[in-house]
Write a structure and sequence with these properties.
This protein has 199 residues and is α+β, with helices and mostly antiparallel strands. The chain has 6 helices and 4 strands, in the order ααααβββαβα. The model has no long low-confidence stretch (mean pLDDT 80).
Length: 199
């Protein structure tokens, strides 16, 4: 909370009007030829501080990842997006991750992808719970352009299995025994059919 308050004070956003969401829904942010430039050093410094904050605030992770894509050529529109994240933090500065003890410690992972219209690449997003507590999350743009959403979802499942295997290995290393298989949830039936096909 102190880090958020210091960030708002340093940027002069303590008296701003709070926003309910960290980014505008269906935003159309991109790099345009006729964009109005902004202070590049200030933008980079703000995005760096927000990246650090997003390690403990998954609610701003997506908005920060979008803002960080334009760190080399920021415009006024991009700075408005960063300022919106700050005004959202004012309304949600007391939020944080809550870890609680549950009756089970079963790991579960959820994966999804969506198509980014601006550069025709898919964005992978996942989060993993252990015993109902969020322990891992990530969003990453895929390096290659997929020709179909099924291929992209299949890559997502493969990435998810790697993450789950790593997590299970880590838990064994700290002498935590898992009794059940880890569940991986994905909304693509076609990708599951490909994964289950031994051919």
């Amino acid at each position: 909370m102190k880090y958020v308050m210091d960030l708002l004070e340093d940027t002069g956003m303590l008296d701003c009007k709070p926003d309910e969401t960290p980014i505008v829904e269906n935003h159309k942010l991109d790099v345009y030829v006729d964009h109005v430039s902004t202070n590049k050093e200030r933008y980079q410094r703000l995005v760096e501080r927000l990246i650090y904050l997003s390690l403990t605030r998954p609610d701003i992770a997506y908005a920060v990842s979008v803002s960080s894509q334009f760190i080399h050529s920021p415009s006024e529109d991009h700075m408005v997006t960063v300022m919106r994240i700050l005004s959202y933090l004012k309304s949600a500065h007391g939020r944080s991750l809550l870890f609680k003890k549950n009756e089970h410690l079963d790991p579960k992972s959820y994966f999804d992808t969506y198509y980014a219209i601006t550069d025709r690449r898919y964005m992978l997003g996942y989060f993993t719970f252990i015993g109902g507590n969020l322990v891992m999350w990530r969003s990453k743009k895929q390096n290659v352009v997929s020709r179909s959403s099924v291929r992209s979802e299949y890559r997502e499942i493969a990435q998810g299995v790697c993450e789950i295997l790593w997590l299970r290995w880590l838990l064994v290393e700290i002498e935590f025994r898992l009794n059940a298989a880890t569940k991986l949830h994905c909304d693509s039936q076609s990708a599951f059919e490909i994964a289950n096909n031994p051919v």
